[in-house]
Amino acid sequence: MAKALWICYFGTALICQWLFYHFPKTFFAFPVNVGLLLFLTVGLWVISREKRFSPFASHLSSLSTTYLLLTLFLGSCLVQGFTNLPVTGTWWFVAVLTALVAHLTLVLFRGLSRPRPYKLRFTLVHAGLLLALSGGFFGAPDTYEWRAIVTKEQPTAEAFDKGGYKTALGETLQLVSSEATFSERGIPQDYTAELRTGKGSTLKLKVNHPHRLSWQDDLYLESINTTGTTDISPYCIVLWVRQPWKYVQWTGIWMLIAGSALLFIQGPFRTGKKGRRRKAT
Length: 281
Fold this sequence. Notes:
Layout: H1 2-20, H2 32-50, H3 55-60, H4 63-82, H5 91-112, H6 119-139, E1 144-151, E2 156-160, E3 166-182, E4 188-197, E5 202-206, E6 211-212, E7 217-224, E8 235-242, H7 246-266
Antiparallel strand pairs: 1-8, 2-3, 3-4, 4-5, 6-7, 7-8
Helix pairs in contact: 1-5, 2-5, 4-5, 5-6, 6-7
């Protein structure tokens, strides 16, 4: 029964991949992704309360399902990392992540409804992992990136996405100065740039040190002109990233860190002489 269920589920994902190729990520942008997340959460809550002993609920929250989904997830990430295949944008990867989020949600609901030792760390670890995955998965359709070339000659007011479509920056940017440090072999190691906005204020950007534009927008320094030739005017490339779900991910990561710290401090579950777990103090 369980094997047939997974074969049908992932088989459907492979068929969709063959028929439609790329997953339509933009279709699931806000508010569709929020509606689907609420529907999934409420549905699994009802199952955990009303159908907790059903074969479906028992298998979806079982340890074997944990091993299966984590293996598929890690395997997909390894394929993405070691090949040029765009795994994260496929129907297969979306199916794996959806099943993993549903599994973690049901495990969390069932664990919270039962008396268990070390309940706080259980909640922090499982809820933290769930928030980190959900923030990245459901927040992906709302994540956007634009790049802009900023020069000294004239202010820049537009940025472009990967498809070449332009959008307004909101305020102009103009390069004031830039600097790069090099290794002994002449390889650039660090970039810094100072920009002037249309309002007269200055921004100092450094690689991996973004400037916060708003609660969801950050400005990164991606590169600068390091050719050293005089016929090319100095310029820098800035990356404008919009991530409205980043706080969900950060909350999940900090909860995971706190739960892992409790796991280190409290240690594993202890059992008595008869193999029964002792109650947590």
